[in-house]
Every structure is written in structure tokens, then in C-alpha cells.
Design a protein that fits this description.
Blueprint (H helix, E strand, L loop, with lengths): L1 H6 L2 H5 L7 H10 L1 E3 L2 E6 L2 E6 H8 L6 H5 L8 H12 L8
Antiparallel strand pairs: 1-2, 2-3
Length: about 100
């Protein structure tokens, strides 16, 4: 929770009045792709395309630094750190490759 607060995302995950369809969120993430800074996905057959700034506005959360998460050049991080992050994000501690 502290990390969500520090990133400015706490309200998004704790506001029960916002309403969120879990199946739609799962479909969004299952179909998501990123190309040239544009996030694309389909939900219920509807194409959704937004960039980081627009998504931040829509969700009411900060988007600063998003480009660092999705950049193709990961040379800023060591291979060991990339593997560690991949293991944590995927919740697969036995993952052998990022």
C-alpha cells in the first residue's frame, strides 16, 4: 500500500465507487500490446488505443516515468536485475529468463 501511495496510484486501487469489471480488466490485459508509445487492446470487440499521458488522465494517476517501464532498450538494468524484476512481476520465482 505504501508503494501505491508513493506512486500516486492508491486511490485507483482502493476507490470502491469507481466500479470495475474484473473480466473486462482481464480481457484488456490479455489483449494488450504496446507499439511506438501507444497502448492498444480490445475489450468486448472494441479497440482501445491510448498513450501513457492519456491513460494517466483517464485513470487519474501519474504517468510520469511510464516510458521507462516499456522502453525496448533495457540496457540500464543488468541481466540479473531484469531477471529479478521479471520474477517479481510475473510472480514466478523459478523463472530462468526475463
Amino acid at each position: 500500500m505504501d508503494k501505491l501511495k508513493a506512486q500516486g496510484w492508491f486511490e485507483l486501487f482502493t476507490n470502491t465507487q469507481m466500479g470495475c469489471s474484473q473480466p473486462n480488466v482481464a480481457e484488456f490485459y490479455a489483449n494488450v500490446s504496446l507499439s511506438e508509445g501507444v497502448l492498444s487492446s480490445t475489450v468486448n470487440g472494441v479497440l482501445i488505443e491510448v498513450d501513457a499521458q492519456a491513460l494517466g488522465v483517464i485513470l487519474g494517476v501519474p504517468a510520469i516515468g511510464f516510458d521507462l517501464y516499456v522502453r525496448k532498450d533495457k540496457s540500464l538494468l543488468s541481466k540479473a536485475r531484469l531477471l529479478e524484476l521479471a520474477q517479481q512481476l510475473s510472480q514466478q520465482p523459478g523463472l530462468k529468463s526475463p
